[in-house]
Design goal:
about 280 residues, MetI-like fold, about 75% helix
Length: about 280
């Protein structure tokens, strides 16, 4: 038993050391991004070699970022598009997941498979169809058009996630609630939904992250500067003949703040339920 305990400790120590080393590789680019945002452009361009930390820390990048670009408008655009698309997508995904989990109807299996198959195709295949549809509905270069595109892009996987979470809840609860006089809608909202709160949160986080980081759809379907989202605005900061790296890194740090906040407070729901809701029972 002593030998087994020693072997177990050594194995755990090796695992922790490996994770620490891998974490360093993951964190170095992030540290370098934050560090570069506090460098002056002269230090970045004239230094003989790249340094991990600034020699003379400066807020020049952040000051220039706010003064040269309308980032308040970009942040507002991202919040409008991402929050609206996340709320609608999660609502419909929840209803779809519950319907697939609790009702048997003709074509149910084929429809579930079709939803899953749509996730296997690259998003580049959707640019032209989405563009034609938005132009047909006169929604190109509008927030509403971009919201609809984001909703359509995340609903399939979110529906599968919620379907898995609902499958993890016994149908006997529904039957017991309806025997006590609850209708189907009341059973859904008052009995089943509270039990799927962790899954609902993880699905919301997934939809939010997908929308907040999305670049190509926003770049193609919005041409006005006043409608640009944050990722597109950051991408446009790279000019043909000059790139102010401190300003670019400062904008990237700003864009990362909401995602960091979401993960700090809700990571346990996201990590523990991501795989649990994405599999078929």
């Amino acid at each position: 038993m002593m030998r087994d305990a020693i072997k177990r400790k050594n194995r755990n120590a090796g695992t922790y050391i490996t994770l620490c080393v891998l974490s360093v590789f993951v964190l170095i680019p992030i540290i370098y991004m934050v560090s570069t945002s506090f460098k002056t452009i002269d230090e970045i361009l004239t230094a003989p070699k790249a340094t991990l930390f600034p020699v003379s820390p400066s807020a020049e990048g952040y000051v220039n970022m706010w003064s040269k670009y309308p980032f308040v408008q970009y942040i507002k655009n991202s919040c409008i598009v991402v929050l609206a698309s996340t709320v609608v997508a999660v609502l419909f995904s929840t209803l779809a997941g519950y319907g697939f989990s609790r009702f048997n109807f003709r074509g149910r299996g084929a429809l579930l498979m079709f939803i899953l198959v749509t996730q296997m195709f690259p998003s580049v295949m959707l640019y032209v169809p989405y563009y034609k549809l938005l132009a047909l509905m006169h929604l190109s270069n509008t927030h509403m058009g971009l919201i609809l595109v984001y909703i359509g892009s995340v609903i399939p996987f979110c529906s599968w996630m919620m379907y898995g979470f609902f499958n993890g809840i016994s149908r006997e609860l529904d039957e017991a609630a309806m025997i006590d006089g609850c209708g189907r809608i009341r059973t859904f909202w008052q009995i089943v939904m509270p039990l799927t709160l962790p899954g609902l949160i993880s699905t919301t986080i997934y939809a939010f992250i997908q929308g907040w980081n999305e670049y190509m759809f926003a770049m193609i379907f919005t041409t006005s500067d006043s409608l640009r989202t944050l990722p597109v605005a950051i991408g446009q900061m790279s000019k043909s003949y000059s790139v102010y790296w401190n300003e670019l890194m400062a904008a990237s740090c700003l864009s990362s703040v909401p995602l960091i906040v979401v993960f700090v407070f809700l990571q346990r729901y996201f990590i523990s339920n991501m795989t649990g809701g994405a599999v078929k029972e």
